[in-house]
Amino acid sequence: MEKKILIVEDDLIIAQDIRATINNIGCYTTDTLSTVEQAMVFLENKKYDLLLIDSGLNEPESIVDLSLKLSERFIIPVLFLITYEDLEKLKPLFLDSFFNFIIKPFQKEEFKLAIEKEIYYFQLKLQLKENNNRYTKILDNIDDSIIITDNQGYITNLNSSAEKLINYKKF
């Protein structure tokens, strides 16, 4: 199955090398851009299965913030390409977000696995979100009051009937 990957890398030589590596992996096709702004325009008109972004892009806004906007607006998984030098600096950003990364330089099989894993996990996240929305709709359409708590007794969820019963509003 062919996957369409959009590469955002401002170094033309590195971008060509990444594109060649992806093509050598087998079943992937790619486009290459040098800025996140260009990616936004491209994503308006084309559908991609994955967005590969170089973490060293010279962007005015945080690369993770930009990627969050891209991911939410276009519903696309994002995989960052980082260097060993950037790993310690960027690690807290990745721990606080939903994005994964791969360290450059990388081996072909390691790269293939990272791409497949990111696409697969993104599909799982979408299914989880869909299931959660379905679960919430079911809960809200039950006339009985339902309050769900964790092991310590803290409320984790409640339906609209329970909200009215205990005069509680979700945030």
Shape: elongated
- Total helix count? 6
**Gap from first CA to last CA:** 42 Å
Mean pLDDT: 83
Question: pLDDT under 50 segments (min length 5)?
Answer: none
Structural category is: alpha/beta
Please count the beta strands (DSSP E, at least 2 residues each).
7
Strand order of the largest sheet: 2-1-3-4-5
Summarize the structure.
With 171 residues, the chain is of the alpha/beta class. The protein has six helices and seven strands; from the N terminus they run E-H-E-H-E-H-E-H-E-H-E-E-H.
Describe this protein's structure:
It is a single chain. The protein has 171 residues and is of the alpha/beta class. Helix content is 51%, strand content 20%. The protein contains six helices and seven strands, in the order E-H-E-H-E-H-E-H-E-H-E-E-H. It has helices at 12-25, 36-45, 63-74, 84-95, 108-140, 160-166, and strands spanning 3-8, 28-33, 50-54, 78-83, 100-104, 147-149, 155-158. The strands form two sheets. The protein has a five-stranded parallel sheet. The protein has a two-stranded antiparallel ribbon with strand order 6-7. Helix 1 crosses helix 5 (108-140) and helix 2 (36-45) packs parallel to helix 3 (63-74). The chain is elongated. The protein starts with a strand and ends in a 5-residue tail after the last helix.
